[in-house]
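Researcher: Next sequence.
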Amino acid sequence: TYGTNRASLVYIADGPTSVTVRNNDISPTAVQSPGTNSLRIAVVGAASVLVDNNWLHNATHSPTGPRGAGLGVTAGNSGTTINVTNNDMYDNGSHGMFTWYATTIFGTLTVTGNDIYNNLEVGVLVGSGVVGDVQIHNNNILNNGMEGVRNERGLPFVDATNNWWGEASGPKDTVGNNEVPPCSSNPADDINYDGL
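Model: Next structure:
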């Protein structure tokens, strides 16, 4: 499904029980205004979604509107499973990937085998309204302007084990201190980085 709903080039709404977005090079800068996300997935009913082997890049930031991420995810059903695998998310005006700030409900969001780099702000941002299990493993998450992964929802933890953070000592906070262990002095940053 193609659409411009919510400033996105691809918009998947309720209806299909299984959706695959694969082998696309999506860069909105040539066809959309600032603040466009390269790909936004919105799932209302229970469904299985696979985002695989895409290049999601150069989404531009709008100072007064949407943030310009490579991939944005929203969902409204605890039966939804979202797998994000083998994508390149880079050079975006805000985040490589984010889950929506408003209530986003899914069973599991699994992010594996992706290269998430050179984004202006955060590599993967888990918004404050997220309800569901978030698993982030076996990715290359590096050279993002702020954190590699940010958890704004607090508990439960985001499991971000077994990723490459750009250096052997593991992920660093915004001032360059290693976050392992402990992850952070701020409880809102609860991310499990053990087992790098």
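Model: The two ends are 37 Å apart (CA to CA). DSSP finds no helices and 18 strands in the chain.
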